[in-house]
Design goal:
The structure holds two protein chains of two kinds.
Chain A: E1 12-15, H1 36-47, E2 51-57, H2 60-69, E3 80-82, H3 86-97, E4 104-108, H4 111-120, E5 125-128, H5 148-151, H6 153-169, H7 174-180, E6 183-189, H8 195-204, H9 217-225, E7 229-238, E8 241-254, E9 257-265, H10 274-289, E10 295-301, H11 307-315, E11 319-324, E12 327-333, E13 344-348
Parallel strand pairs in A: 1-2, 1-4, 2-3, 4-5, 6-13, 9-10
Antiparallel strand pairs in A: 6-7, 7-8, 8-9, 10-12, 11-12
Helix pairs in contact in A: 8-9
Chain B: H1 3-18, H2 38-52, H3 69-80
Classes of the chains: A alpha/beta, B mainly alpha.
Chain lengths: 350, 81
């Protein structure tokens, strides 16, 4: 099933600014030189779905003004501009974006700062400033294909930022806030048009991924077409935007048992109970369609980073069944308790 | 480690992770009526391990262990021995 060991792809490129993104030092000379080549590169990186941020020893207000003047502010999420360590900046960016250090690339002209980041955060991929023109040729920056979701990734993150800001200033309870977001989750069967996005989720998700098995594309196609297998996907939208397909689950039906061979959910939508809602709804759909199923099995491979997936199984009523090394099997006896998600409108069109 | 210290530190950690100031010690921590979702719970578990210098076996991270603070503290004490 597995595509083989592959280095993690870059999800976010963090730029130093002075003599890296632009030529010159902003704090000394407002008239820095920002080339068309760099402008085109930022745009291309954005188009392939790689997020971008900034880690710079600079005054944040001045940086935001300059980025606005250059008309490139929108490309950079959670810029970290202060006089502290770049290590702390990259940690903050990883935390805000909820991504692992092994999916961050950092480009910097100062060899000391580059070394410092790589010493304290060895998983971060470091690039010298002069390597900028070759970045998109590197394996870790390449994608086999670009999905609609990857093209919109930055915009989705901006929507999330707006939602977080709105939540921060909301005066009522969290449940009331979630209801005010007008979230709508659609659960449906996957079709051949969804294969690229399912492949992307299987390869990119870590936290909400039960087995971290990086499936071959052929395996997904087989699942979509096979009679005894079911692939469900979930799409999310709320008043801040549309998120496309944010989760998928691959099921196999054998006798009276259902096996969840993979479930993975984008961590960009965490904290709203969406994962639990999807899994709950997906299992309920299958139980209705295949009324002779009396048990649902799900493997879990313990890699610590995917503990959220383990907790998701727990909240959905799965119990530990067996263990072999790092791999465990969890089981859910049917009928299951159908949970209510009052803040969420669920459209089940399976 | 005595159980009262473990309990007090666990409650402090829950408050820090969830941002809640009032924690009902009888409330389930996860699942139906739980105070944490799965992502928050995973972060909380990582923080517990760091704080108490323990590493949970994943089969012990279940609804029973997280049914309330006392059951969780008992698990922490078990791992601390």
């Amino acid at each position: 099933m597995t595509a083989g060991n592959e280095k993690m792809k870059i999800k976010c490129l963090v730029w130093d600014l002075d003599d890296t993104l632009w030529e010159g030092t902003l704090s000394e000379n407002w008239e820095i030189i920002f080339t068309q080549e760099k402008r085109d590169l930022i745009k291309k990186i954005d188009e392939v779905g790689i997020l971008q941020s900034i880690a710079s020893r600079n005054d944040l207000e001045k940086v935001l003004l300059k980025l606005g003047e250059l008309e490139i502010s929108d490309y950079f999420l959670y810029p970290q501009c202060h006089w502290g360590s770049k290590v702390e900046s990259i940690k903050a960016i990883a935390d805000k974006l909820n991504i692992g250090f092994d999916t961050i690339g950092y480009i910097e002209d100062n060899p000391f700062e580059l070394s410092e980041v790589q010493f304290f955060l060895p998983e971060v991929r470091g690039y010298k400033a002069q390597e900028y023109s070759n970045l998109l040729n590197l394996e870790e920056f390449k994608s086999s294909f670009i999905t609609n979701e990857s093209k919109l990734r930055r915009k989705m993150m901006k929507s999330r930022q707006e939602r977080e800001d709105a939540e921060g200033s909301y005066k009522g309870s969290r449940e009331d806030f979630l209801k005010s977001c007008n979230m709508e989750l659609t659960v449906r069967c996957a079709n051949s048009n969804d294969v690229d996005r399912i492949y992307e989720l299987a390869h990119r998700t870590n936290q909400m991924n039960n087995i971290l098995d990086r499936l071959d594309r052929d395996v997904i196609v087989d699942y979509v077409n096979a009679n005894n297998k079911v692939v469900l996907v979930s799409e999310l939208e709320d008043r801040f935007g549309q998120y496309g397909i944010i989760g998928t689950s691959l099921f196999e039906i054998k006798d009276r048992k259902c096996f969840i061979n993979l479930f993975c959910i984008s961590c960009r939508i965490e904290g709203r109970g969406i994962g639990a809602a999807f899994l709950n709804e997906a299992i309920d759909s299958l139980a209705s369609k295949y009324s002779n199923i009396n048990e649902v099995y799900c493997h879990y491979i313990d890699e610590k980073k995917n503990r959220p997936a383990l907790m998701l199984l727990q909240v959905n009523g799965f119990k530990h069944f067996s263990k072999e090394g790092k791999k465990s099997t969890y089981v859910l006896k049917l009928p299951m308790e159908k949970d209510g998600f009052e803040w969420l409108k669920i459209n089940n069109i399976t | 480690m005595d159980i009262n210290t473990a309990k007090s530190e666990t409650i402090d950690l829950i408050k820090k992770i969830t941002g809640k100031t009032n924690i009902n010690v009888d409330s389930p921590l996860i699942g139906k009526g739980g105070i944490m979702d799965s992502m928050t719970a995973a972060n909380f578990i990582n923080s517990l391990e760091e704080k108490f210098k323990i590493y949970f076996m994943h089969e012990d991270l279940n609804l029973e262990s997280f049914s309330n603070i006392d059951s969780l503290v008992n698990l922490i004490i078990k791992y601390s021995k």
